Amino acid sequence: MRNYFENDYTSYRFHDDVLHIIYHQGVCIDLNAAVQIVKDRLLLQEGVSLPILCDIRGIKEINKSARAYLAMEGSTLIKAVAVIVEAPVSEMMSEFYIRTSNPSIPTQSFENLDDAMVFLRNFMA
Fold it and tell me: Which residue ranges does the record assign to the DUF7793 domain (predicted)?
């Protein structure tokens, strides 16, 4: 499995059996971006289901179709998601996503990386 990859929207890195996805600073995510993000993630995972740490603090904007895609098709091969947020903007964005998109996998927001990793340890094989 490749350890690092980057596209126009995110960087992906494996660390401690968790895939870390970090959104670039100031990105706007539409449906096309969401499709690319999921496609690249699935290629990196090579069919292996993993817990995901997703740092969304860099997202400037994400539209409804992108949120819906990430909640459904974007859940493929994911055991759980810990979302790293920063109050108030990305925290509100994450809570809105969780409330309205109702992701099919365990998803929780954290302001602290250590707390997020404690949550994800419950989903490691």
Answer: 13-123
User: For residue 93, what are the domain limits?
Assistant: 4-120
| Domain-located, residue 80 | yes
Q: How many structural domains comprise the chain?
A: 1
Print burial letters for 68-104: b (CB count within 10 Å at least 16), e (below 16).
Answer: bbbbeebbebbbbbbbbbeeeebbebbeebbeebebe
Residues 12 and 55 sit within 8 Å (Cβ to Cβ): no
* pTM of this prediction exceeds 0.90: no
pLDDT digits (tens, 9 = 90+) for 107-119: 888 999 999 999 9
Can you name the residues that pair with 110 across neighbouring β-strands? 84
